[in-house]
C-alpha cells in the first residue's frame, strides 16, 4: 500500500496482542487532511484498539505510526494530544458538576503568574469555539445540566479549542436526535474545511454513506481493504465486514396474525422525573398475536416511557386501560407485568438489562427464577440445561455458560437479555432498541429470532431509531411525538418521509381523521 | 485503492478470560487471596510464638472463642454488604439483645427457649426497622442504620436503667441479692468435645452454614447478589427488591441478637454498653475476606477467612504482649496490606 | 429575599440571646442570709450516666440527701457532652440553685462556667474530676495513685513478698489508668513480685478476658491478677475458670461498687476489691456544712476502703492514710 505524502496519519503494519492473544495483525490506515475516513467493522474487529493505539492509550504495539511525515511512538495520552490527536469516545469524558469552561480547559488551564487561573481568557476562548459550532450557552453552568447532545458538542469543542487536526469520533450520533445529527454533520464539514482529518466509527449504514469520503474495513483484527465511499456498494461493504454474502438484511416474514394480545386505551403517564408535562398522553393502540408493531419517533417522543409505563417501571402512576388477552391489567410493578405475560427489553442493557458481574445462566434466569427454584431451593443443573437450550437457539457465542456477561460482545450480551425475557414465556414482548450497539451479523440473527417468536404467537412491540429497521421489520407502524401518536401506517404505505414528518410533529391527516 | 483479503472467519469473538490458564484463575480467585493473608498471619504467629504459646491448642481454641461473637456479626454484615448496603447498628442490637436476654433469664426466670426466641425476635424487628427505612423510604443504608444504632443503644440503656443486668439483683432496700446463673448461660459459656471447642464457636459455625445456605442454595441468595450487582436491572427483571432488602437487614438484626445472647452468656451479664465499635470489626472481617463493599460479589466463607485473619492477628499481638500503641499501628497496616492483596486485576 | 430573611433570622437570634442573658436574677443573699433559709435546692450536674460508677455516685448523693428533708436535689445528665454540661450549668445558675455539685467531663472547657457560678455567690463542689484554677468552693475526689499504691502493698503482703503477677490495665491514655499503674508500681517496689504479663484491657471485661487467655496459655505459673477495675478482674476470672485454673490464682480489682465488686468479693471471685469512692456522701455532708455557714477545706481527699471476704459484710476496712 502506498502511503501518500502529506497524509496526516499513516499507520503501517500495526500489530497488537493482549496476554498472547492477537487482536490486531498487519493493519494499515491512512488519514488525509480534509477528509472523513470511516472505520468500519463488526464488534470485535479491532476498531477501538486501533484508535486507542493512535490516541496513546496503548503504548505497546508493533508497526509504525507517522504523523505529518514524522514517525512517532506515543508514550501517553498527553503525548498523542500534543501531536494534535483528539478522541471523542462514546462515553463522554466530561466532569458533570464542573462548568463548561472548566471542563474544556481541564488539565490545560490557562494561568497568570503564580498560578492564578486566567478565567477571562479561558471564557473568551470557549465562547469563540462554541459560537463556531452554533452553540450559544452559558459556559459557567455545570455540564451535567445540559442534555446529552449538547454535552457531545461541548466535547467536540474541546478538540477545537486546542487546534487538533486529527479528530476521532466513536459512534457520535448514538444519543442524538435527527436535527442534532444534522448539526453534527455540519460541524464535520467545517472541520474538513479547516483541514482537519476525521476518523469516524459508526454502525449505521445511512450515516456511513452520508458522511464518508473513504471507508476502511477491519475484520477479526485484520485489514480487509480501503475504498472511496462512492465506489463501494453497500452489499460489498457488508461482505467485507462479515466475510460472507448476506442475502437480505431484513428477513421479515409474517406467518399468521391471531387474536388481540394487548390493547391499550387512552394511556397516559406524567413525566417520571417530575417535570410538569405528560410524557405519554392518551395513547391507544393494539397488537395481535404474531404481529410486530413498530414505534417510530425522535428523542423525547415518549415511546420508551410508554413501554416502561405499561411494564410498571414507574409504579402506579399511569392512567388509562391496558388489556392483555382480554383481561384488564393495571401496571404496578415489573414483577406483576412479568406474571401477566409482559416482557420489556430495555434500551440500555448495561444499566438496566444485565447484572454484569453475574454469568450467562444467572442473568438468563433472573426474571423467571421462581420456576427454577421450587420451595425457594435453587436447581442449578435445571437452570443450566434450560439456558443452554436457549443459548443455542439464540446462537449466543461464548466459550462457556459460566462466563461473566461483562466479557461478552454487545450482540451476545443482547442475546442473553433476550434469552432472559423469552424464558418468562411472554405473551407480549416489548423491545426498546434491540439492535443498538450490535454488529451486523448479530443483528441479522436477532431479526430472524423476531420472526420465530411471532410465529409462536407472541405479539412484539418494537422501538427503533434506525429507519430502515423500522420500515422493514414492522407490520404496522405508529409514530409518536411528544407523548402523542401522530400517525399510524401499515407496512405497505409507510415511507421514510412520512414517518419523519410525523415524528417531527406533523400530524398525519389520515390518522387524525380516524382518531 | 482497495484490496480484498479472504480470511476464514473466527467463529467466536476473542475473549481474554478464556485464555487464562487454570493456574492463573486459581491465583486470582478471591478465596486464594483471602487465604494468602490468613496464611501470612499464621506464619507470623508461628515465628513469634511467645514461648511456644502459639503452638498450644488452647491458644487457638481461645482465639476462636473470642472471635465468634464478632464473626456472627460479620455473617449478618456479609449479607447486607452483598446488597451494596451496610449495617452500623449491629453492635447496638447486640447490646439490646444481651440486656433483654439477661433480664428474661436472670430476673424473670424464663425458660431458655422462650428467652432466646423473644431475643431473636427483638433483633429481627430492629433489623427490619433498618430495612424499612432503606427499602421503603429510600434512605441511604449508612444513615438508616446509624439511626438504628443510636435508637437500639438507647433502648438497651432504657430497659436496663443504664446498669449492667447481672446475677446481682437489687432489692427494694438498695441491697443486692445474688441470683443463680441460668443454665443456658453456663451452657453457652462451656466447652464441648473434651473441652476443645467452645460452644460459641459451634454457634458461629452454625451461623456460617445458615448464611451459606441462604446465599448459595436459596433463591433469595441469588436475588441478594443481583440487587448488589445491579439494583435497577434486578427490579426491572421482576425481583422484589424492597422485600429482599428488608430480609437482608432483618437477617443482620437476627444474627446480631444471636451474638448478643452469646455475649451475655460469656460475661454472665447483659451490658448496655456492650458492642461499641463492634460493627467496625465486623466490616473489617468482611472486607478482608474479599467481599466487595460495592456489592454483588463475595461469600460467607470469605468472611470466615477474614474473621480468622483478624482473630489470629489480635491473638498474636496479645500473647506477645505488644503495647497498645504498636498494636493499633500494626493492625491498621495489616488491614491495608490485606485489602491491597484483594485488588482484582481485570 | 434570601438576604433579607437571613438578616431577619440573625436579628431575631440576637434578641433571643440578649433576653436570655437578662435572666440574671439579682442575688438577694445577705452575708448571713443562709441562716434564714429553711429549704435548699442543690443542682447535681453529672457528666454521664453510662458508667455504673457514676450511676452509683448519683445514687449515693440521693441516699445521703434523703436524710435531710430540707434538701431538694435536681439531677441533670450531660450524656458525656461538654457543651451540654456547660449549658446545664447555666440553667442551674439562672434558676437560682443554692449550691451546685458538678462532676465535670473535662477540666478546661468547664472551668469558665464553674467560675461564673462561684463568682455569683453559688457554692460549687467539684467531684471526682478537677477543673482548672481555683474558682470553686471545694474539690472532693479520691487519689488513684494512693489506691494503686495501697493495692500494691496489700498484694505484696498477701503473697509474702514474691510471686508472678498479671497486670490488666485500664485505658493508659487516661489519668486513672496511669495513676493506678504508677501507684501500684510504687507499692510493690522492693519486693520480689514479678509482672510476667501486662496488657491494656481498656476497662472492658471481654477485652480483659481475651488478654487473660493469652497470659494463661503462655504462662503455666500465675499467682495473682491485678486489674485496674472490677469488670476487668471478673473477665480474668472467667478466663481462668474456663481453663480450670481459677483456684490457683488470686484476683484483685478496683472500684468496689456494691452491686459489682463487693458481690464478687462475697462470692469469692475476687480476693479483694479496692473502693474507688464516689464521694456522693461527702459532697452532701460538705454541702450541709456550707449551708450552716461553716468553713470547708478547698480540697478533700476521700479515703478508700478495701473489701475482702471477711470484712465485706461489715462495710470493708478503711485504708490507712499515708
How is this structure best described in words?
The complex is a heterotrimer of chains A (515), B (346) and C (322). Chain A has three domains: 236 residues, 3-Layer(aba) Sandwich (Rossmann fold); 185 residues, P-loop containing nucleotide triphosphate hydrolases (Rossmann fold, 3-Layer(aba) Sandwich); 70 residues, no CATH class. Chain A is 33% helix and 25% strand. Chain A has 18 helices and 20 strands. In chain A, strands 6-7-8-3-9-10 form a six-stranded mixed sheet, with helices on both faces. In chain A, strands 16-17-18-13-19-20 form a six-stranded mixed sheet, sandwiched between helices. In chain A, strands 2-1-4-5 form a four-stranded antiparallel sheet, covered by helices on one side. Chain A starts with 6 loop residues before the first strand and ends with a helix. With 346 residues, chain B is mainly alpha-helical. Chain B has one domain: ABC transporter involved in vitamin B12 uptake, BtuC, CATH 1.10.3470. Chain B is built from 14 helices and six strands. Chain B has a two-stranded antiparallel sheet. A two-stranded antiparallel ribbon of chain B has the order 2-3. In chain B, strand 4 and strand 5 form a beta hairpin. Chain B starts with 21 loop residues before the first helix and ends in a 5-residue tail after the last helix. The N terminus of chain B is likely disordered. Chain C has 322 residues and is α/β, with parallel strands linked by helices. Chain C folds into two domains: 116 residues, Rossmann fold (3-Layer(aba) Sandwich), CATH 3.40.50; 143 residues, Response regulator (Rossmann fold). Chain C has a seven-stranded mixed sheet with strand order 7-6-8-9-10-12-13, sandwiched between helices. Chain C has a six-stranded parallel sheet with strand order 2-1-3-4-5-11, with helices on both faces. In chain C, helix 3 runs parallel beside helix 4, helix 5 packs parallel to helix 6 and helix 7 crosses helix 8. The N and C termini of chain C lie far apart (72 Å). The chains are: A alpha/beta (515), B mainly alpha (346), C alpha/beta (322). At the B-C interface, helix 3, helix 11 and helix 13 of B face helix 2, strand 7, helix 7, helix 8 and helix 9 of C.
Biggest chain pair interface:
A-B, 63 and 42 residues
Q: What structural class results from the helix and strand content of chain B?
A: mainly alpha
| Biggest sheet features of chain A | 6 strands, mixed
Mean pLDDT of chain A: 85
Content-based structural category of chain A: alpha/beta
User: Biggest sheet of chain B: strands, sense, closure?
Assistant: 2 strands, antiparallel
Rg from Cα of chain A: 25 Å
What is the CATH first-level class name of chain B?
Mainly Alpha
Q: Kindly, what is the distance between the CA atoms of the first and last residues of chain B, rounded to a whole number of angstroms?
A: 40 Å
Amino acid at each position: 500500500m502506498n502511503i501518500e505524502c502529506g497524509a496526516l496519519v499513516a499507520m503501517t503494519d500495526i500489530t497488537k496482542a493482549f496476554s498472547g492473544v492477537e487482536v490486531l495483525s498487519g493493519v494499515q490506515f491512512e488519514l488525509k487532511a480534509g477528509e472523513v475516513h470511516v472505520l468500519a467493522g463488526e464488534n470485535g474487529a479491532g476498531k477501538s484498539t486501533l484508535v486507542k493505539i493512535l490516541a496513546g492509550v496503548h503504548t505497546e504495539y508493533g508497526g509504525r505510526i507517522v504523523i505529518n511525515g514524522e514517525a512517532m511512538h506515543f508514550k501517553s495520552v498527553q503525548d498523542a494530544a500534543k501531536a494534535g490527536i483528539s478522541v471523542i469516545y462514546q462515553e463522554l469524558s466530561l466532569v458533570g458538576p464542573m462548568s463548561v469552561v472548566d471542563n474544556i480547559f481541564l488539565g490545560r488551564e490557562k494561568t497568570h503568574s503564580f498560578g492564578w487561573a486566567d478565567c477571562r481568557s479561558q471564557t473568551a476562548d470557549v465562547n469563540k469555539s462554541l459560537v463556531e459550532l452554533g452553540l450559544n450557552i452559558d459556559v459557567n453552568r455545570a455540564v451535567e445540566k445540559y442534555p446529552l447532545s449538547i454535552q457531545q458538542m461541548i466535547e467536540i469543542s474541546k478538540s477545537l479549542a486546542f487546534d487538533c487536526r486529527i479528530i476521532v469520533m466513536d459512534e457520535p450520533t448514538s444519543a442524538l436526535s435527527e436535527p442534532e445529527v444534522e448539526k453534527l454533520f455540519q460541524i464535520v464539514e467545517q472541520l474538513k474545511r479547516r483541514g482537519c482529518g476525521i476518523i469516524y466509527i459508526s454502525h449505521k449504514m445511512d450515516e456511513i454513506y452520508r458522511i464518508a469520503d473513504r471507508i476502511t474495513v477491519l475484520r477479526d483484527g485484520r485489514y480487509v481493504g480501503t475504498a472511496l465511499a462512492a465506489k463501494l456498494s453497500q452489499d460489498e461493504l457488508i461482505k467485507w465486514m462479515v466475510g460472507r454474502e448476506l442475502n437480505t438484511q431484513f428477513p421479515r416474514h409474517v406467518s399468521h396474525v391471531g387474536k388481540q394480545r394487548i390493547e391499550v386505551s387512552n394511556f397516559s403517564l406524567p413525566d417520571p422525573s417530575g417535570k410538569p408535562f405528560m410524557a405519554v398522553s392518551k395513547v391507544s393502540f393494539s397488537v395481535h398475536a404474531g404481529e410486530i408493531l413498530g414505534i417510530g419517533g425522535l428523542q423525547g417522543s415518549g415511546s420508551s416511557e410508554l413501554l416502561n409505563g405499561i411494564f410498571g417501571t414507574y409504579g402506579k402512576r399511569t392512567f388509562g386501560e391496558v388489556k392483555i388477552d382480554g383481561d384488564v391489567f393495571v401496571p404496578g410493578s415489573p414483577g406483576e407485568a412479568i406474571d401477566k405475560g409482559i416482557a420489556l427489553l430495555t434500551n440500555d442493557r448495561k444499566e438496566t438489562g444485565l447484572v454484569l458481574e453475574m454469568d450467562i445462566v444467572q442473568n438468563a434466569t433472573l426474571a423467571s427464577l421462581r420456576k427454577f427454584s421450587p420451595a425457594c431451593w435453587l436447581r442449578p443443573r435445571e437452570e443450566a440445561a434450560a439456558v443452554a437450550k436457549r443459548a443455542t437457539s439464540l446462537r449466543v457465542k461464548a466459550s462457556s455458560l459460566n462466563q461473566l456477561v461483562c466479557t461478552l460482545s454487545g450482540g451476545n450480551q443482547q442475546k442473553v437479555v433476550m434469552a432472559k425475557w423469552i424464558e418468562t414465556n411472554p405473551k407480549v414482548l416489548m423491545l426498546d432498541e434491540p439492535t443498538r450497539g450490535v454488529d451486523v451479523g448479530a443483528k441479522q440473527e436477532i431479526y430472524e429470532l423476531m420472526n420465530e417468536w411471532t410465529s409462536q404467537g407472541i405479539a412484539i412491540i418494537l422501538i427503533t431509531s434506525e429507519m430502515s429497521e423500522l420500515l422493514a421489520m414492522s407490520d404496522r407502524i405508529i409514530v409518536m411525538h411528544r407523548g402523542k401518536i401522530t400517525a399510524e401506517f401499515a407496512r405497505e404505505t409507510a415511507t421514510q418521509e412520512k414517518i419523519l414528518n410525523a415524528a417531527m410533529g406533523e400530524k398525519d391527516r389520515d390518522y387524525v381523521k380516524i382518531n | 485503492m482497495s484490496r480484498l483479503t479472504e480470511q476464514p472467519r473466527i467463529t467466536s469473538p476473542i475473549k481474554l478470560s478464556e485464555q487464562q490458564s487454570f493456574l492463573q484463575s486459581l491465583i486470582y480467585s478471591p478465596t486464594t487471596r483471602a487465604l494468602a493473608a490468613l496464611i501470612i498471619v499464621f506464619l507470623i504467629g508461628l515465628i513469634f510464638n511467645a514461648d511456644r504459646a502459639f503452638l498450644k491448642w488452647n491458644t487457638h481454641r481461645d482465639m476462636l472463642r473470642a472471635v465468634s461473637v464478632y464473626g456472627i456479626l460479620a455473617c449478618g454484615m456479609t449479607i447486607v454488604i452483598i446488597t451494596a448496603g451496610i449495617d452500623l447498628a449491629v453492635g447496638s442490637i447486640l447490646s439490646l439483645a444481651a440486656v433483654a436476654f439477661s433480664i428474661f433469664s436472670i430476673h424473670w426466670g424464663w425458660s431458655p427457649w422462650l428467652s432466646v426466641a423473644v431475643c431473636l425476635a427483638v433483633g429481627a424487628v430492629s433489623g427490619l426497622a433498618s430495612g424499612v427505612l432503606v427499602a421503603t423510604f429510600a434512605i441511604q443504608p449508612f444513615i438508616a442504620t446509624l439511626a438504628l444504632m443510636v435508637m437500639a443503644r438507647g433502648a438497651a440503656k432504657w430497659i436496663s436503667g443504664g446498669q449492667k443486668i447481672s446475677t446481682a439483683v437489687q432489692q427494694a432496700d438498695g441491697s443486692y441479692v445474688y441470683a443463680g446463673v441460668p443454665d443456658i448461660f453456663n451452657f453457652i459459656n462451656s466447652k464441648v468435645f473434651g473441652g476443645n471447642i467452645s460452644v460459641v464457636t459451634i454457634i458461629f459455625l452454625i451461623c456460617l452454614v445458615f448464611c451459606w445456605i441462604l446465599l448459595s442454595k436459596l433463591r433469595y441468595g441469588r436475588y441478594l447478589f443481583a440487587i448488589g450487582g445491579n439494583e435497577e436491572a434486578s427490579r426491572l427483571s421482576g425481583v422484589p427488591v424492597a422485600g429482599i432488602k428488608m430480609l437482608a437487614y432483618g437477617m443482620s438484626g437476627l444474627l446480631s441478637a444471636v451474638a448478643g445472647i452469646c455475649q451475655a452468656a460469656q460475661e454472665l451479664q447483659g451490658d448496655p454498653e456492650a458492642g461499641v465499635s463492634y460493627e467496625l470489626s465486623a466490616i473489617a472481617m468482611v472486607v478482608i475476606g474479599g467481599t466487595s463493599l460495592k456489592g454483588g460479589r463475595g461469600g460467607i466463607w470469605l468472611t470466615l477467612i477474614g474473621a480468622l485473619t483478624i482473630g489470629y492477628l489480635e491473638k498474636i499481638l496479645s500473647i506477645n504482649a505488644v503495647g497498645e500503641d504498636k498494636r493499633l499501628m500494626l493492625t491498621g497496616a495489616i488491614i491495608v496490606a490485606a485489602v491491597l492483596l484483594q485488588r482484582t486485576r481485570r | 429575599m434570601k438576604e433579607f430573611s437571613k438578616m431577619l433570622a440573625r436579628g431575631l437570634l440576637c434578641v433571643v440571646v440578649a433576653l436570655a442573658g437578662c435572666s440574671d436574677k439579682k442575688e438577694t443573699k445577705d452575708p448571713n442570709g443562709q441562716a434564714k433559709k429553711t429549704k435548699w435546692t442543690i443542682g447535681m450536674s453529672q457528666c454521664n450516666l453510662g458508667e455504673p460508677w457514676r450511676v452509683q455516685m448519683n445514687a449515693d448523693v440521693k441516699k445521703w440527701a434523703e436524710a435531710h428533708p430540707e434538701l431538694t436535689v435536681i439531677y441533670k445528665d450531660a450524656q458525656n457532652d461538654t457543651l451540654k454540661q456547660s449549658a446545664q450549668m447555666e440553667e442551674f445558675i439562672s434558676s437560682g440553685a443554692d449550691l451546685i455539685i458538678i462532676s465535670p467531663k473535662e477540666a478546661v472547657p468547664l472551668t469558665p462556667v464553674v467560675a461564673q457560678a462561684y463568682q455569683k455567690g453559688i457554692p460549687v463542689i467539684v467531684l471526682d474530676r478537677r477543673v482548672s484554677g481555683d474558682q470553686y468552693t471545694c474539690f472532693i475526689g479520691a487519689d488513684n495513685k494512693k489506691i494503686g499504691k495501697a493495692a500494691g502493698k496489700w498484694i505484696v503482703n498477701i503473697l509474702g513478698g514474691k510471686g508472678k503477677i498479671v497486670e490488666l490495665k485500664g485505658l493508659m491514655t487516661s489519668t486513672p489508668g496511669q495513676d493506678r499503674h504508677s501507684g501500684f508500681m510504687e507499692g510493690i517496689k522492693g519486693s520480689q513480685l514479678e509482672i510476667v504479663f501486662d496488657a491494656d484491657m481498656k476497662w472492658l471485661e471481654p477485652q480483659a478476658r481475651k488478654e487473660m487467655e493469652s497470659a494463661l496459655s503462655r504462662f503455666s505459673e500465675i499467682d495473682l491478677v491485678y486489674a485496674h477495675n472490677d469488670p476487668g478482674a471478673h473477665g480474668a476470672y472467667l478466663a481462668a475458670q474456663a481453663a480450670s485454673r481459677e483456684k490457683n490464682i488470686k484476683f484483685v480489682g478496683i472500684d468496689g461498687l456494691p452491686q459489682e465488686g463487693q458481690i464478687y468479693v462475697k462470692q469469692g471471685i475476687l480476693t479483694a476489691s479496692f473502693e474507688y469512692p464516689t464521694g456522693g456522701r461527702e459532697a452532701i455532708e460538705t454541702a450541709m456544712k456550707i449551708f450552716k455557714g461553716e468553713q470547708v477545706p478547698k480540697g478533700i481527699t476521700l479515703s478508700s476502703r478495701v473489701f475482702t471476704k471477711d470484712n465485706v459484710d461489715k462495710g470493708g476496712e478503711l485504708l490507712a492514710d499515708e
